[in-house]
Amino acid sequence: MSDVHKRIDEIVKSHPIVLFMKGTADFPQCGFSGRSVQILKACNVGECFTVNVLEDEEIRQGIKEYSNWPTIPQLYVRGEFVGGSDILMEMYQAGELQTLLHA
After folding, report:
1. Do the beta carbons of residue 100 and residue 91 sit within 8 Å?
2. Which pLDDT band holds residue 103 (cuts at 50, 70, 90)?
3. I need a labelling partner for 63 at 20 to 30 A (CA). Which of 4, 15, 85, 97 fits?
4. Residue 63 and residue 52: Cα distance in Å, rounded?
5. Cα→Cα distances 20→33, 62, 63, 96, Å
6. DSSP 3-state assignment of 16?
7. What are phi and psi of 60, to 5 degrees?
8. What pLDDT is attached to residue 46?
9. How far apart are CA 5 and CA 10, in angstroms?
10. How far apart are CA 71 and CA 90, in angstroms?
11. For position 60, what pLDDT does the model report?
12. Predicted TM-score (pTM) of this structure
């Protein structure tokens, strides 16, 4: 495992809910990241650790390899990769995301 993958693994396993995104929860810097934050707020997620991939190019590229998922944002819940913005929206609309987040 590379150094960046070890860093990502530590972040993912140290927090129950982690969103790798462009920008911050208060100031998303892409529409998909903004939508993901809004979905989590709609699910009444009190605490979500966010990682601004724009601040660290190694993390920005490494997270795509770590998850084998080509786009950002990426959500992890209890150490498991959930998906990107479109998957979050589908799961939210089906009621599955709320169940997962509050299990």
Report:
1. yes
2. confident
3. 97
4. 11
5. 9, 11, 8, 20
6. coil
7. -60, -45
8. 85
9. 8
10. 16
11. 97
12. 0.96
Residues 52 and 22 sit within 8 Å (Cβ to Cβ): yes
Query: What's the farthest any 2 CA atoms get from each other in the chain?
Result: 37
Q: 76 is written with which tokens?
A: 């992890």
Q: Which phi and psi (to 5°) does residue 20 adopt?
A: -85, 120
Tokens of 71: 């786009």
Cβ contact 92:42 at 8 Å: yes
* pLDDT tens, residue by residue, 39-93: 999 999 988 999 999 999 999 999 999 999 999 999 999 999 999 999 999 999 9
Task: State the CATH class of domain 3-101.
Answer: alpha beta
Nearest to 53 by CA among 31, 23, 27, 83: 23
